Amino acid sequence: MSNPQELRYSKEHEWLSAAADGVSTVGITEHAANALGDVVFVQLPEVGDTVTAGETCGELESTKSVSELYSPVSGEVTETNQDVVDDPALVNSAPFTDGWLFKVKVSEEPGDLLTAAEYTEFSGS
């Protein structure tokens, strides 16, 4: 799967889908999901939590390791994907669709997010 063109990407391998209402969806890339291996546990921020761009806000545990989850933007968490908490394998099987992690009302978007082409070059995927 190629990296969807409409998304923006962080160097920590998260993706961001911006919406007109200022609420963006966050997930991890297929590259990150493949590197992690089979995800068996997902810890997400709580609704109402404030997240900061580049800071940890949760973790993903796989059969190989535990990886921190970083927020690509700053803002308030408005929704979490309970389906991923209940079935962490969605992160591996559908990282850009059903495997999204949380939604955030963006207060600040950093200028260092990558386009799909830039992320593909950066990650080699």
UniProtKB/TrEMBL annotation:
SUPFAM superfamilies xrefs? Single hybrid motif
Task: Write down the InterPro entries for this protein, in alphabetical order.
Answer: 2-oxoA_DH_lipoyl-BS, Biotin_lipoyl, GCV_H, GCV_H/Fam206, GCV_H_sub, Single_hybrid_motif
Q: Which Pfam families match?
A: GCV_H (PF01597)
Q: Domain Lipoyl-binding spans what residues?
A: 23-105
Q: Where is the signal peptide?
A: none
Top-level taxon in the UniProt lineage: Bacteria
Keywords attached to this Swiss-Prot or TrEMBL record, sorted alphabetically, are:
Lipoyl
What are its cofactors?
(R)-lipoate
Modified residues annotated as N6-lipoyllysine in this record: K64
Q: How is the cofactor bound?
A: Binds 1 lipoyl cofactor covalently.
User: Assembly and interactions?
Assistant: The glycine cleavage system is composed of four proteins: P, T, L and H.
Function, in words: The glycine cleavage system catalyzes the degradation of glycine. The H protein shuttles the methylamine group of glycine from the P protein to the T protein.
What PANTHER family would the database entry show? GLYCINE CLEAVAGE SYSTEM H PROTEIN (PTHR11715), GLYCINE CLEAVAGE SYSTEM H PROTEIN-RELATED (PTHR11715:SF3)
**Which NCBIfam families does this UniProt record tie to the protein?**
gcvH (TIGR00527), PRK01202.1 (NF002270)
Q: Which family does it belong to?
A: Belongs to the GcvH family.
Query: HAMAP family from the xrefs?
Result: GcvH (MF_00272)
Annotated protein name in UniProt: Glycine cleavage system H protein
Species this chain originates from? Streptomyces monticola
Origin organism lineage: Bacteria, Bacillati, Actinomycetota, Actinomycetes, Kitasatosporales
